[in-house]
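Reopening this one. Same input as before:
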Amino acid sequence: MTWTWLSSTVAPLQQLIGFLHKESKSSDVTGKQVLMELRDNLNLYKEAYENTGTYDNLIDLLSNEAYRTAIKENFPFKKIKAGKIQKIHIRDERNLRYLGWTTEKLMDKIDEKIQSLKNLKKLNNGSVEKISPKVTLKLSNLYFRMKLMAEFIYEVKR
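Same output, byte for byte:
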């Protein structure tokens, strides 16, 4: 599988992962779990890129459980970051479509994309290799959404 779409963002990604690690030391258990999941999912992309992982393996390892638990517990996502995404939060041109979105809305779309990828893999006999161009786009969209979420949270904390 090709990871060229990820190559230009791997270096700055380490800083975001480190930031999320520090932020996840919160006393709010649910918020902490959501931040840890975001951190872990971003780290999976980094590791897959550096170790030439497969899309199938990445999809298996991506998690959305903390998000789903937060929804069940009626967690207010504005506790993670209040407000709306503004142009100053966006570092990648492709994320301009998320202007005005809240943490809750973006997290919902991240969850939706993770679930969609897991379902797509199941529907294709446990492998996405035969449909990789479609999956490449889905995985890159998910990655850039998660990266935007981390950058949005990071912006206020700097």
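So the earlier flakiness isn't reproducible anymore. For the record, The CA atoms of residues 47 and 151 lie 19 Å apart.
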